Amino acid sequence: MSGAGLAQRPGLAIAFGAVGLLAGALLIIWAGTLVAVDRPNPAPGQAVDGEQPSADVAPVPGAGPQQPARKIAQGLIAPPPLEVSAIERIEPRLPLGELGLASWPETPMPDDWRETLLYRPIATSSAAFEAMGRKIIVSGTLGIDPDKSCSIGEAAWPCGQRARAAFNAWLRGRALKCFVPPETDRFAIAAPCKLGKQDVGAWLVANGWAMALPGSIYGKAEATARTAGMGIYGPPQ
């Protein structure tokens, strides 16, 4: 081998060595990139491979226990605490008027009289009706005869017919609850009646479609109707 060939061998060895180092470095970089891609992303605050989580990572809602919310204007938003022992039960208020919830007459009824529902009542006058073969006069009231005429000044009008029509319109065929005897006959009987919770006599007298019998519980109702010009005490209707 010539002297020139021997002189070139050390240079070739250095060149091959440099290429090998460069190739090794590239392989290391490529392998690191693959590991970074395949590695899962840990949740905030979760340790990975024994490493402690970073202290500056913000907590994610729902990821773990949170600090209680700060109370703002609690006295304005939430009702004040209520002491059950401090609650006091009082008596119910009285009715606004004595006419709508008038009680049954204090006169004791005969033992055989019973509270009975009378269906499909039809007014025969302003304070009397027929239902289920019975003829009932509302006790404590004095009805207006259907043929009676009333006059206000020079104007006359058939107030008796109008009073009977008003009674019928108010009933509308609804059942009345009356205290009546068990037997029926051809004679009319006076009995207290209610329509639901409404006293029938109180409604008739308070609206001016019937008068109160002397000494009955409807005396104040008649005075009120006269003062207010209700029913027969008012203008033609």
Features:
4-stranded mixed sheet, 5 helices, alpha+beta, 12 strands, rod-shaped, 237 residues
Written overview of the protein:
By secondary structure, the protein is α+β, with helices and mostly antiparallel strands. 30% of the residues lie in helices and 18% in strands. It has five helices and twelve strands. A four-stranded antiparallel β-sheet has the order 1-8-10-11. A four-stranded mixed β-sheet has the order 2-3-4-9. Strands 5-12 form a two-stranded antiparallel ribbon. Strand 10 and strand 11 form a beta hairpin. The protein starts with a helix and ends in a 9-residue tail after the last helix.
Helix percent reads 25-40%
Cα radius of gyration in angstroms: 51 Å
SS class: alpha+beta
DSSP strand content: 15-25%
Number of helices: 5
Mean pLDDT: 76
Head-to-tail CA distance between termini:
149 Å
The major sheet is characterized as: 4 strands, antiparallel
Number of strands: 12
What is the strand arrangement across the widest sheet?
A: 1-8-10-11
From N to C, what is the helix and strand string? HHEEEEEEEHEEEEHEH
Overall shape: it is rod-shaped
What is the element layout, followed by pairings?
Blueprint: H1 3-38, H2 74-77, E1 114-118, E2 122-125, E3 128-131, E4 134-138, E5 141-143, E6 150-152, E7 155-157, H3 159-171, E8 176-180, E9 189-191, E10 193-195, E11 198-199, H4 200-206, E12 210-212, H5 219-228
Parallel strand pairs: 4-9
Antiparallel strand pairs: 1-8, 2-3, 3-4, 5-12, 6-7, 8-10, 10-11
